[in-house]
Amino acid sequence: MKNIVAFVATAALAAQGATAHYIFQSLAKGTTKGVPYEYVRRNNNYNSPVTDLASKDLRCNVGGATGGNTSTLELNAGDTFTFSLDTAVYHQGPISLYMSKAPSTAAEYDGSGDWFKINDWAPQFNGGQATWTMKDSYSYNIPKCVPSGEYLLRIQSLAIHNPGGVPQFYISCGQVKVNGGGSASPSPTAKIPGAFKATDPGYTANIYNNFHSYIVPGPSVFTC
C-alpha cells in the first residue's frame, strides 16, 4: 500500500510539473487586459518554456516566427501598454521587455534584426531578502523617442528558481505600430539568439544562497 501511495504522489507531482507553467497571452493599450492572441503571436508549445540558448524560438517562442492571424496594435510613442498572462508568474526571475523594428510590417517580421531592451523588473533587495515582481499583468510605456514604425514587442520571464537546473524562458511577442515617434537610434542592441549566455551571472545565479545582488542578462536598458 505504501508503494502505491508513493507512486500516486510521484505521478501527481510529475503531472503538476508538466502543466504548471504560464504564458503571456494578451497585449492591450493602457492598463486593461486584452483579448488572448489578438495582438500576441500564438505559440504552439502550450505554456512550456524555451531552454536552448541557441534557438531562434528565444525570439517569439515556439511557433511564433511569423504573425499568422495576429493583428497589430496601434500605439503612440509614450503610450502605456499591458501584457497579461493566463496565470500569475510564480517562478522567481527577472521580467524584461524588448523591441525590434520591423523592416516592413510586424506581421511579416521574424525578429532576426536588432533588439533593444526597454525595461527590466529586477529583484529588489531589502534586509537580506530579494523580492521579485510576480504578477498576472505587466504595464509599461513605449519610449517617446523611438522612431515611428512597426515593431515586435517582446516580453520575457527568465525563471531561475531551480539552481543547478536549466533556466527557463517564458516568452511572447506582440505586434505594434508606433505613431508619433522620435528620431533616436536605440542602443545597445543585441541579436536573439546571442543576447544570453550560459556564463552570464544572472543566468547562473543561486537565488537561495548568498544572494545579495543581481545583474539581469541581456543588454542594458535603453532610455530616451
What percent strand? 25-35%
End-to-end distance: 65 Å
Rounded to the nearest angstrom, the radius of gyration is 18 Å
What kind of sheet is the major sheet? 5 strands, mixed
How does the helix and strand content classify structurally? alpha+beta
Summarize the structure.
12% of the residues lie in helices and 28% in strands. The protein has 224 residues and is of the alpha+beta class.
Description:
The protein is an alpha+beta fold and 224 residues long. Helices cover 12% and strands 28% of the residues. The chain is built from 3 helices and 10 strands, in the order αβαβββββββββα. Strands 2-10-9-4-5 form a 5-stranded mixed beta sheet. Strands 1-3-8 form a 3-stranded antiparallel beta sheet, with no helix packed on it. A hairpin with an 8-residue loop joins strand 9 (149-159) and strand 10.
Give the SSE map.
Blueprint: H1 2-19, E1 24-29, H2 57-60, E2 73-76, E3 80-85, E4 95-101, E5 116-121, E6 124-126, E7 129-131, E8 137-141, E9 149-159, E10 168-179, H3 201-204
Parallel strand pairs: 2-10
Antiparallel strand pairs: 1-3, 3-8, 4-5, 4-9, 6-7, 9-10
Question: What labels describe this entry?
Answer:
alpha+beta; 224 residues; 10 strands; single chain; five-stranded mixed sheet; three-stranded antiparallel sheet; 12% helix; globular
